[in-house]
Design brief:
heterodimer; A: about 375 residues; mainly alpha; Cytochrome Bc1 Complex, Chain D, domain 2; two-stranded antiparallel ribbon; about 35% helix; B: mainly beta; nine-stranded antiparallel sheet; four-stranded mixed sheet; 5 helices; Copper-binding protein MbnP-like domain-containing protein (chain B); signal (chain B); MbnP-like_dom (chain B); MbnP-like (chain B)
């Protein structure tokens, strides 16, 4: 009856020891090792502080370059079909036009792919999570998730790593981490560095607001701006700060601002419930107060990232505004969880168009062009 | 609402040991190394390919079954004493991964024993063995990619919970393999001070289970039995949704946790 099976040695990866030795020689002069990686320059506007970066994954030119290669490479998925960019398309500010993402095995995820913009400044990751402490940790989800499979790395590490022992990769790994042998940990580090490098602060709005260029916005966009920052629409309460999200570490928010809100997108039972398949922050904390709470995402480049909301359930910006104007969905039914800032407002068609025009002024063409051209390289 | 799922399952296990001491010999007949305790699945045909679990008339393939144990301790003269697991690919000094596999998949990718780093003499002095199903808080939430084996086994990663699964059971219905059912258990609802720090406080649902097993001088010869059917008792795998902890307070998760705590699913043979 009993299973008598012999334990096998796991293939443990020990690149860290080598890594350590190598960074040591770099410190003492680098004679035997490759040249030390080059510190990354952010090139941020003056009013934007550099984001905090984990001490064990410093930003270097080499790690960002390696991360960029990996980001666009389907070799990172077990069946070689899916890259990060399959769901995060640079033409869409690293979001996608599907309602919800589809993983490497064709299974649908619950959620719409988030745009990857200024993620380095995020105080939280994904649409609703209060307990992922870094981009590095967040990336384990698309890589290792099995329900549904996103990239399918679980159990296929050896096959996948072997693919990176060829071509330009050994040199890129060596330059970034002093070791040409790829490891999952270094892959994650490089991807996180690349994601951190995706900063976008060069929209028409930025020219107007931070570079004092009065001609950067049209009269219609200015009308929309004033509506956005008005007590009537309340948009700025949740999408505030330089990143248009409270969930940002350098956005000069009032202390203790809560970055998660229930917008009333669902009210399944007249008591505020969200669909069982996705109850937002509640599904992570199991605290009833968190029912249907999601992070207010950045609105930068928002014109490019349709459809909208965590499940892609709203198709256009006009529809998003109409949604807020009617006070959320099922607004007549009681909903103890809906944010007090979602109370509905009246808005004319002209004003709606102005608000959309303002949201369009948040597009950073330079950012998009830069990354699209790199993708096509 | 917040329940600490920690209980010991001692009383029923005591009984199990009492009925099984006959016929044993002090000499270790099975040629085990000191401190080795084999685990044996019961109610599962482990010779079949894939392994088959029978529940009433239904037959289910066990596609994956594994769990972590940690914090081994023995009681000697009424005092608990920390002991270590022998360090192997399946064990760090404080954590062990049990992973059961069927004949046809790579049989080497499995471990069905723990090995305590203790002498036979020490074990003989022990009156109890205690361990926890699950991982300690800090180990659970550390970067799994840089941890030693078996903590780096990605099939036990639970990335959306920023931790590890403590127990994983995946089954599919025999003859109707597209019909799958999964039970993934680990700590959930772990609040951190801030989202950009590791969780420092404990979790709303720690979901660790402590086992206290009696030991007698004769136990150095016994196996521990693991009953999968006790884990899923009173859950209709045909009807019930999987439990991967999207909501711990709904069925079948609630029932499954009760089983884990109240039904003796690990006991002496």
């Amino acid at each position: 009856m009993a299973v008598k099976v012999l334990p096998q040695r796991f293939k443990t990866r020990a690149p860290n020891a080598r890594e350590m030795v190598c960074s040591l020689c770099i410190v003492v002069g680098g004679s035997a090792c490759s040249k030390a990686p080059t510190p990354y320059e952010w090139n941020l506007p003056n009013h934007i502080p550099a984001p905090t970066v984990p001490a064990d994954n410093p930003m270097t030119v080499e790690s960002v370059k390696l991360g960029e290669m990996l980001f666009f490479d389907t070799a990172l998925s077990a069946n070689n079909t899916t890259s990060c960019s399959s769901c995060h398309d640079p033409e869409k500010a690293f979001a996608e036009s599907r309602k919800v993402s589809v993983g490497a095995h064709g299974e649908e995820l619950n959620r719409n792919a988030l745009a990857l913009i200024n993620v380095a400044y995020n105080a939280s990751f994904t649409w609703a999570h209060n307990n992922l402490d870094s981009i590095e940790k967040q990336l384990l989800i698309p890589l290792f998730n099995e329900h549904p499979v996103e990239m399918g790395v679980t159990g296929n590490e050896d096959v996948i790593l072997m693919r990176f022992e060829q071509g330009d990769y050994p040199a890129l790994f060596k330059a970034a981490y002093g070791d040409e042998t790829p490891s999952v940990n270094n892959i994650v580090k490089a991807l996180a560095s690349y994601v951190r490098s995706l900063v976008s602060f060069n929209s028409a709005f930025d020219a107007y607001a931070y570079r004092q260029d009065d001609s950067a916005l049209t009269a219609q966009q200015l009308e929309g701006l004033n509506l956005f920052f008005s007590e009537r629409t309340e948009c700025f309460h949740c999408h505030g700060g330089v990143n248009f999200t409270q969930s940002s570490k350098h956005s000069f928010q009032p202390f203790g601002a809560q970055p998660f809100h229930n917008t009333g997108l669902y009210n399944e039972d007249g008591a505020g419930s969200y669909p069982k398949t996705d109850m937002g922050l509640y599904s992570v904390t199991f605290n009833k107060q968190d029912m249907g709470k999601f992070r207010a995402p950045t609105l930068r480049n928002i014109a490019l990232t349709a459809p909208y909301m965590h499940d892609g359930s709203i198709a256009t910006l006009e529809d998003v505004i109409a949604f807020y104007a009617r006070g959320g969905n099922e607004a007549q039914s009681p909903n103890p969880y809906r944010s007090p800032f979602i109370k509905g407002f009246s808005i004319s068609e002209k004003e709606k168009a102005a608000l959309v025009a303002f949201l369009q002024s948040l597009t950073d063409e330079e950012f998009v062009e830069k990354h699209v051209s790199r993708k096509n390289k | 609402m917040k329940m600490p799922f920690r209980m010991c399952v001692m009383p029923s296990l005591l009984l199990a040991v009492l009925v099984s001491i006959t016929g044993c010999d002090v000499v270790n007949l099975k040629g085990r190394e000191p401190g080795e305790i084999p685990f044996k699945l019961i109610g599962v045909d482990t010779g079949a390919c894939p392994m088959i679990m029978s529940i009433g008339k239904q037959r289910w393939n066990v596609d994956y079954f594994g769990f972590y144990l940690s914090k081994p301790e023995v009681r000697i003269d009424g005092k608990w004493q920390r002991v270590k697991f022998k360090q192997t690919q399946w064990q760090t000094p404080n954590e062990a991964l049990l992973k059961f596999h069927n004949k046809c998949s790579n049989p080497n990718d499995a471990n069905s024993k723990i090995v305590l780093d203790v002498s036979e003499e020490l074990l003989k002095l022990s009156t109890n063995l205690r361990f926890t199903m699950g991982l300690p808080f800090d180990v659970n939430h550390a970067n799994p990619l840089t941890q030693p084996s078996p903590l780096n086994d990605s099939s036990m990663f639970w990335s959306w919970q920023n931790g590890h699964k403590f127990l994983r059971l995946d089954v599919s219905k025999s003859g109707e393999e597209a019909r799958k059912w999964s039970y993934h258990l680990g700590s959930v609802g772990c609040n951190s001070e801030s989202a950009v720090r590791s969780p420092e406080k404990s979790c709303a649902f720690t979901n660790r289970v402590e086992f206290i097993l009696p030991m007698t001088q004769l136990d150095t010869d016994l196996d521990l039995e693991v009953s999968v059917s006790n884990i899923v008792a009173q859950v209709d795998l045909n009807e019930a949704p999987s439990c991967m902890f999207e909501s711990p307070e709904t069925e079948p998760c609630k029932k499954l946790i009760q089983n884990l705590v109240h039904r003796p699913w690990i006991k002496w043979q």
